[in-house]
């Protein structure tokens, strides 16, 4: 069984913790009050890989604070990560600009492949789901998923499992190339 370390990063109040709790089947104090994550929360669970039959993956989900006061911790948090999901609220205009910063600081600098990354436009309850977002061109190569836990929760889970399958396939291919380079 594969083990994948996935980071949930993005601006403050974008819904990272809500999505992390949902995907890991974790429930914390369910209330409408916003409580920012301090540093990082690590959730561990098993997940089916979309399109791989009955394969499962052990997921270590790192729900990272969006507060820049924790910036000095980010290199340690990024170490040995298998993939990164940038979560943002598409209804907040500043989030569209902020995800470019997150991308350059935590993805470009780590040399992750595009299929190891995912953009998740998290729509909060009561907000309208819009189709097209005005993203920077370099972000267009990364998969984009619109999440709405109120209306389509299982679509969100399915999209995450598909993304996880891509990450595991990439890790498998990298491992096979390393093994072949040792043999030859």
Task: Indicate the percent of residues in helices.
Answer: 25-40%
Number of helices in the DSSP assignment: 4
Major β-sheet annotation: 6 strands, mixed
Which spans of ≥5 residues are poorly predicted at pLDDT below 50? none
Gross morphology: globular
Give, in order, the helices and strands: EHEEHEHEEH
Q: What value does the Rg take, in angstroms?
A: 16 Å
Structural class: alpha/beta
DSSP strand content: 15-25%
- Strands side by side in the biggest sheet: 2-3-1-4-5-6
Mean pLDDT rating: 86
- Could you give the count of β-strands? 6
Give the terminus-to-terminus CA distance. 27 Å
Walkthrough of the structure:
- By secondary structure, this protein is α/β, with parallel strands linked by helices.
- The radius of gyration is 16 Å and the shape is globular.
- Strand 4, helix 3 (93-106) and strand 5 form a beta-alpha-beta unit.
- It starts with a strand and ends with a helix.
- The model has no long low-confidence stretch (mean pLDDT 86).
- It is built from 4 helices and 6 strands.
């Amino acid at each position: 069984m594969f083990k994948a370390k996935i980071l949930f990063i993005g601006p403050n109040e974008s819904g990272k913790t809500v999505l992390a709790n949902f995907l890991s089947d974790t429930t914390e104090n369910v209330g409408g009050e916003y409580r920012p994550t301090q540093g990082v929360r690590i959730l561990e669970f098993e997940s089916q890989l979309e399109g791989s039959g009955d394969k499962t993956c052990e997921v270590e989900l790192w729900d990272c604070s969006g507060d820049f006061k924790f910036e000095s911790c980010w290199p340690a948090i990024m170490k040995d990560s298998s993939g990164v999901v940038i979560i943002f609220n598409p209804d907040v205009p500043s989030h569209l600009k902020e995800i470019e910063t997150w991308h350059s600081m935590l993805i470009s600098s780590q040399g992750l492949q595009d299929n190891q990354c995912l953009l998740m436009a998290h729509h909060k309850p009561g907000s309208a789901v819009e189709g097209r977002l005005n993203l920077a061109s370099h972000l267009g190569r990364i998969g984009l998923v619109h999440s709405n836990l109120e209306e389509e929760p299982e679509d969100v889970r399915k999209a995450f499992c598909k993304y996880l399958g891509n990450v595991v396939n990439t890790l498998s291919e990298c491992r096979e190339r390393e093994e072949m380079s040792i043999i030859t």
